[in-house]
Amino acid sequence: MNAPTGGPRVLVVDDNEMLRELVERILVTEGFQVTAANSVGEALAAGAVDFDVVLVDLRLGGRPGSDLVTELCRADPTASRRIVVLTGAWGAEPLPAGIPVLAKPFTADGLLAAVHAVLRHAGPDPR
Amino acid sequence: MTALGGDAPRAAEETVADVHALLRMMVFLQDRGQRVAADRMHDGPMQDFTAILLELATIRRQLPAALSERISSIEDRLRTTSLGLQPPPNVFRISHDARQSLAAGLSQRVDGLLVDQLETDLRVETHPPTLTEIAVSLAAVQLLLAASSPHRPAEQAWLTAESRPDGLDLRLRVRPRGPRLETDPTRSGLLRSLADLIGARLAHDPADSTWSATLHVSRIPRPPRPPRPPRPAADG
To answer: HSE-up of B12 (CA within 13 Å, CB side)?
Structure first.
């Protein structure tokens, strides 16, 4: 896990190391502060509820990403506005209504658009 | 199960119920297979496609405009192609709408696979069937079509499904390919045996070379939900 200084804080939760690093690289290039986690446990330990944006893969080794979504929404009812679910497993896991889904495979432009949409929805983009 | 004396109709009903339970299991197994295929697609190719797309984007940003546009167009094509490889949505997780689930099941597992052209008339809004009844119906349609045209899709079929308080009434009319069914004892025998087994009534219409089957899928009581196992305390 790392968190360089910069703009809005983004938590990337994916158990695929290569994808995690690529997503992180793209977001850091765009000025985001990125923290990466490979499991629900790591994400919670990193303080997931405090991030501006949480990108979470649904299919993780161990607990599914939907568990993280549920826990964040329970801890903070507004958290659903800050979450983007990454998945290729269509309709595999039930999600609270209104949470955007970025379907794999996604492009860098799609990723950035999703992150900016969350920031716009949650409040003024601080950058 | 053997029919004895006056209990014969009841025994026959029980046999049909047992067979319907097998049909339900057959479709749920198909569903499980589809789920595994979707998971494998997600864990393998879709992760790789995403990684390739993100790598391309990283490279694109360092290139002059003309080359950058070409890479961007490659990204778009790659994404479109890979999306086309996604398995269709799971029939039983699409929604709680019976019509949508039944239509999706027929579209994914019958139309184009077991019959070249399927026309449907689904009247399931009142007393909507449960997913279990939809599974039994899908399996019955699949097996009837496969029995009448074992080696290639039937030419045309018409399916009417109408839900009632006590279950779902199905009527399937089929124009098979190849020789007329009544002149082919192997196929017609297989179809008759299957119809008997699943409790369907068969009829032939020599005038237009079609056969039809009517079947009632009885309302199946929902089994009680088993208690959910406790969640693991830590990540596995």
So the answer is: 11
Q: A105: closest CA among B36, B37, B88, B81?
A: B81
Q: How far is CA A116 from CA A97, A124, A127, B218, in A?
A: 20, 10, 11, 51
CATH 3.30.565 in chain B is located at 91-218
Just give the CATH number of A9-122.
3.40.50.2300
Q: How does pLDDT run across A59-97, given as a tens digit for each residue?
A: 888 898 989 999 999 998 888 889 999 887 555 556 667
Q: By three-state DSSP, how is residue A15 classified?
A: coil
The sheet that has B201-205: what strands, in order across it?
Answer: B115-123, B154-164, B167-175, B210-218, B201-205
Distance CA B178, CA A44 (A): 63
Q: Counting beta carbons within 10 angstroms of the beta carbon of residue B127, is it exposed (0 to 12), middle (13 to 18) or buried (19 or more)?
A: middle
For residue B157, the cross-strand partners are B118, B174
Q: What token pair was written down for A89? A: 């497993």
DSSP summary character for residue B199: T
* Cβ-proximal residues to B147 (8 Å cutoff; 6+ apart), any chain: B187, B190, B191, B194
pLDDT in tens, B61-75: 899 988 999 999 999
* Nearest residue of B to residue A102, measured between CA atoms: B50
Yes or no: is domain B91-218 CATH 3.30.70? no
Mean pLDDT over B79-89 rounds to 81
B129-146 per-residue burial string, b: 16 or more CB within 10 A, e: under 16:
bbbbbbbbbbbbbbbbbb
Question: Distance, in angstroms, between A29 CA and closest chain B CA?
Answer: 9
Which of B39, B76, B231 is opposite residue A89, by nearest beta carbon?
B39
Contacts of A25 in chain B (CB under 8 A): 54, 58
Strand order, beta sheet including A101-103 = A33-37, A9-13, A53-57, A83-87, A101-103
